[in-house]
Amino acid sequence: MMRAAPFVLLTALLISQSVACDARSCPPTDYAASTLPDDEESGALHMLQMSAGKQHEANAELGKIRQCGAGRPVQVFVDFDDTYKSSGGFWPAGCEGIYTKEVIFPGMAQFVLELARGPEEALKVLQPAVMSARPDALKFLRVKRESFAAKAMTDQQTREDPAIWDQYNVEMKVQIPTNLTSYSYEAGGVKKLLGSSDSLGEKFGLDVNGSKYGQLTDFVDFDKMGTTKYNSFLDFFNDTVRDHDEACVVWIGDDGQGDCNPAAQKMRKYVKKQQPELGLKVAFIHKLACTTDFTKKPDCQEELADDDGAPLIIFDNYLDAARKAAKRNFISQAGFNRVKTAVEDFYATYCDHEGASKAPDIARQRRLAMLAPETVGTLGCQRLRAAISETSGGKVPDVPRHENRAYRRFEAFCKGCCNDKVPNGESDFPLDGYSFRCHNLYHHSSRWKFKMQASADSCLTHCGLGAMR
Question: What is the model's pTM?
Fold first, then answer.
């Protein structure tokens, strides 16, 4: 019994030492100085080494920077030009002209909603907001609540919406659960989501007031544009946002003007002030197919999640983005299916079965200013066809699953203005109680306008073989 005392004392002493120091500062211990017999000394040393090792591992884990936690509220920020909607390839807004200027990218709005809901499909979410380098001083460049861009993030399309919105892919309703509630981050949304009380929220939509913009001095300087967006990201984690450290940010941009480099590259390494956790959950970067030669895109590389950085994912289209997001558990499989349906509905509306556009930019192709440009070129349809086919076993849709006014417009136009693929001589066609011109299917009829039949090009593209099945 007397010989056990040194063992107990030494054990207590060394364990207390291992707890007091951390994994980087603990000095080496001279176990050879022990006066215990060999067998007892060996057992004591083994126990002490295991205890110290576990403590060091725990201390090291506490100091490790974590990925932004699962289950936290997610604030989605999305760039505007060439990410939210197409620039049409018009500089300085952007460089990709596969879609006509102002067209909402297919599947974008549904993808944003799924990211906000996360893999657990939350029914209380933060509203997404725009983060753009458009100069804040130029008020007309801001996204307005009543604009087509804001309306595209809702499920509230009506027959009274402007006819031109059919051209811009605005009338595709987002699939929003009827019991989903959303909150704006700048009005205490993070705290409301974390609270136990049933705070009154709003219908899901774009957080117009919380959207962020750039400076006039950023103009065409990619590094300044990217730095401005990074600074806007930092603003979210400043004290102006309540409980900011309890949320994660998801950033969606493109590789054209600094969204990836330097913006996303800096965002992915930002650590919250109050805890060793990254502020960015993930960045999704739209890989542009630039159709203009005005500029060279900054370098952009995909990044995996690592010890000091969030993942950065590059995507070709929003079906591709959703597939990658579901694979990495940023959205649910059901969420992926909803994005897929949104992309398929766009394809069935604006593209024919073989991948030709039913709404090409005729004005650009023919260089005739009198003909109105429409929605998407055949290259855009072919790319979507390949993406849909890859995820559907080679099948592509002929008819949209969800009713939309743009599809009905094409049907009414072909029935009222064309015989198969040629003009029938009529000047007007009816749709939803209104009368529209055959010469331009987005213009209302008027007695002050010349009566003109549809062009041969319009009948051929909108009503050609495979266009309406």
Answer: 0.84
